[in-house]
Specification:
Layout (H helix, E strand, L loop, with lengths): L23 E4 L9 H16 L3 E6 L9 H13 L6 E4 L4 H13 L3 E4 L3 H10 L10 H13 L7 E4 L14 E5 L13 E3 L1 H11 L4 E5 L6 H10 L6 E5 L11 H9 L14 H7 L3 H10 L11 H13 L3 E3 L1 E3 L1 E7 L5 E5 L8 E5 L4 E4 H4 L7 E4 L3 E8 L3 E7 L8 E2 L2 E2 L4 E8 L3 E2 L2 E2 L4 E8 L11 E4 L3 E7 L2 E6 L1
Parallel strand pairs: 1-2, 2-3, 8-9, 10-25, 12-18, 16-19, 21-27
Antiparallel strand pairs: 4-5, 5-6, 6-7, 11-24, 12-15, 13-14, 15-20, 16-17, 17-18, 21-24, 22-23, 25-26, 26-27
The structure holds one RNA strand of 79 nucleotides.
Length: about 500
RNA sequence: GCUCCUGUGGUGUAGUCCGGCCAAGCAUACUGCCCUCUCAAGGCAGUGAUCCCGGGUUCAAAUCCCGGCGGGAGCACCA
């Protein structure tokens, strides 16, 4: 019996058969859409493992279906990964190796481990269900070689495919003579019309992983049944086999990731674009003010498990809040303003700290004329109540009508009554804050998912860079999106 | 339907392989206190789990065995 060692582990669980310095991981996205939180999870896990073992990490664009790929997606994925701070030792495309796949295919054909099938699509599917082999599977290597040739110039798309000789009676349906190659005439963004016989995912990943030196290959758990095929293909080709691992897919409640759902929303104008702050795309998360560090910590906190989970968005926010708090400038902001006139105010300019504890300097705010307060801060106000206007002074309410009047009493910080933020009406900057809510509720689009609030903030807002993280005091963290728009990050 | 995977507090996990240190750790959420010119951050404390259910093995089970049940996925010329 082995000695049981129990230690508190930090981060991901150790890998089986992993040697320090000899681990190679890989992230193989298909360039068929914008990167989202699901990509981030896979990319981060691979990145972390390669770092943990001082190994290498390969980025491989899995572009084996020219009908789906677009150049802009290559770029978007790269931008997203850069943003996440992930570096790769090697970047390549699966399509770089097409000729090589052809060689491997011929090898299989010669060994009679694959065959060209010219059956109709629905017949193939029917045979799979009923575990019946078709007559094509009986053809000999010579005939298959001939069929393979014809796939390049004679057959039309759909007329012939290459199938792996698996096991039509296997309980694992992916083993029932799966497809290895098919004909696609669409133009590939990189290779244009150079090829029309394309390898399937299963064939390409197995070979690529093996050839790229990948020692540990991870994918989300819906691929689990394909492991058997993966290994069998490599065995048939007598190639080195990486270790496979699976993790659960990461998705947030009510935040769909699939293009099938998102595309119509964008077409209908219900969602502005892939960077709409309600979406779980990397662009959207960034725009909303979620930091890459938070995404990484969050991903790691989910662990490496196969249990299907409902991801806790509030935990992502908690990580983010801690990260962002230290460098978010504190600004005043008021909603649905009520006017307050203060008599005998002693200052015309006040200095306000940009951060309560960190040294982020101060800003000067000129105070003249009326002051704006959030209506929710004054709704229960009575005459003679006292308020502290933060950074300005304490006031005592003298009258409450359509406007409120008050008189300055003193500037004592140490008071027990409410301390509230304020804005000087003369230099108030009008701003729109976008507050994203859950996009879907019970599979139905949430019409109120994007709340817009008109507010007033300090003119200092204009001096901040776009993308600056702000904490509107007593409201929450927001990210400057533009001159007159900010996006609510979280409380 | 068949096959595979999965099931620990409201939520996400650690622990399960190698039974005892686990009347179950951490994080998040919530509550209270402290700190604070914020309803943030920080500090402290608290609420909250018969470890899906039922049997069995054992001195001892979240952990092993058997049988149920719940959830997810695959059954594409997508990846």
């Amino acid at each position: 019996m082995k000695e049981k060692v129990k230690e508190d582990r930090i981060g991901l669980p150790p890998l089986e058969d992993a040697e320090q310095g000899n681990v190679v991981t890989r992230f193989p996205p298909e360039p068929n859409g914008y990167p989202h939180i699901g990509h981030a999870k896979a990319a981060i896990i691979n990145d972390e493992y390669s770092k943990m073992y001082g190994g290498k990490n390969v980025l491989r664009f899995d572009d084996t279906n020219p009908e789906n790929e677009r150049l802009e997606y290559w770029a978007a994925i790269k931008v997203g990964l850069d943003w996440l701070g992930i570096k790769y030792d090697k970047i390549k495309n699966t399509s770089d190796d097409i000729e090589l796949f052809y060689d491997k295919c011929k090898d299989l054909l010669n060994q009679n481990l694959a065959y060209v099938c010219t059956c109709k699509r629905d017949e193939i599917s029917k045979n799979r269900k009923e575990m019946i082999s078709c007559k094509c599977s009986e053809s000999d290597p010579k005939q298959n070689e001939d069929g393979w040739d014809k796939m390049f110039h004679k057959y039309k798309p759909g007329e012939a495919i290459v199938r792996f000789r698996g096991n039509m009676e296997s309980k694992n349906t992916v083993m029932r003579d799966p497809i290895l190659f098919r004909i696609i005439d669409a133009r590939h963004p990189l290779l244009e019309k150079k090829y029309r016989v394309w390898p399937s995912y299963d064939f390409a990943v197995a070979i690529e992983d093996s050839l790229d030196g990948v020692t540990h290959a991870f994918r989300s758990k819906e691929y689990e049944l394909r492991n058997e095929l993966y290994y069998e293909i490599l065995d048939a080709l007598n190639m080195r086999k990486p270790k496979m691992g699976e993790f659960s897919r990461l998705e947030f409640k009510g935040m769909p990731v699939s293009k099938r759902i998102l595309k119509p929303l964008i077409d209908d104008g219900k969602v502005s674009w892939y960077d709409d702050p309600r979406l779980p795309t990397l662009e959207a998360l960034k725009r909303k003010g979620i930091t890459p560090e938070a995404i990484r910590k969050f991903t790691l906190s989910l662990g490496f498990t196969k249990s299907n989970t409902l991801a806790p968005f509030d935990s992502l926010e908690a990580f983010n809040r801690k990260i962002v708090d230290g460098n978010s400038i504190r600004l005043f902001m008021v909603k649905s303003p009520k006017i307050l006139t203060v008599s005998n105010l002693p200052h015309s300019v006040v200095k306000l700290p940009n951060h309560p504890s960190n040294d982020m300097g101060v800003r000067e705010v000129t105070v003249e004329g009326d002051i704006l307060l959030s209506s929710e801060d004054v709704k229960d106000l009575k005459i003679n109540d006292q308020l502290r206007l933060m950074g300005l002074g304490n006031v005592k309410i003298t009258s409450i009508n359509s406007k409120i009047t008050a008189e300055f009493t003193n500037d004592n910080h140490d008071v027990s009554f409410r301390k509230i933020q304020w804005i000087c009406q003369k230099n108030a900057h009008k701003l729109k804050i976008l507050i994203p809510h859950q996009l879907f509720i019970d599979d139905k689009f949430n019409e109120g998912s994007l709340e817009e609030v008109d507010v007033y903030t300090e003119p200092h807002y204009l001096e901040l860079k776009d993308g600056a993280e702000i904490q509107f005091i007593r409201f929450g963290y927001c990210r400057k999106d533009s001159m007159n728009q900010a996006i609510f990050t979280h409380k």
